[in-house]
Structure prediction request, 167 residues.
Amino acid sequence: MLRHLGAESIPHPGGTLYAHLDRVHLRLARWQARPALQLAGFCHALYGTDGFPKALLPLDRRGAIAAAIGAEAEALVYLYASCDRGATYPGLPEGPFHDRFTGVVRMPPAGRLRDFAELTAANELDLAERDEEFRARYGRELLALFSRMRPLLGDAAWGDCRAVLRG
Prediction:
């Protein structure tokens, strides 16, 4: 599906968007994330993100995506894509979540917030590993974010955060 949507031809730090999505998926697998979160990692840019606005599909295709990857994985893809980072990140992990698509402000259930934290870490760590300029510019800020989110991150995710962002 991702290849059909052109993810292999979209430039992204470290190669192509497809390569990035695959690496995020593999990192989550190494962290022993459950299958729905791993799949969400592979598909996390389908609707674009606050940091990468190129959407592969419009939001009106959510039902078709849920049918293809499962409702739980699709809901995680939407949650990740919908995050208004500027409004949400400063309050994490206790603060509200701001949906950039709808403007709705809410607090996701604890399990979803943990998934969001791990998906966010997997995504940002992949960028930081492959783009020295990105790491130099955002590494401290990301380490501070993930330090605040530490209660939401598993040990493997937190270990990677420290290794990549302190290194």
In short: The two ends are 35 Å apart (CA to CA). The longest helix spans residues 110-130.
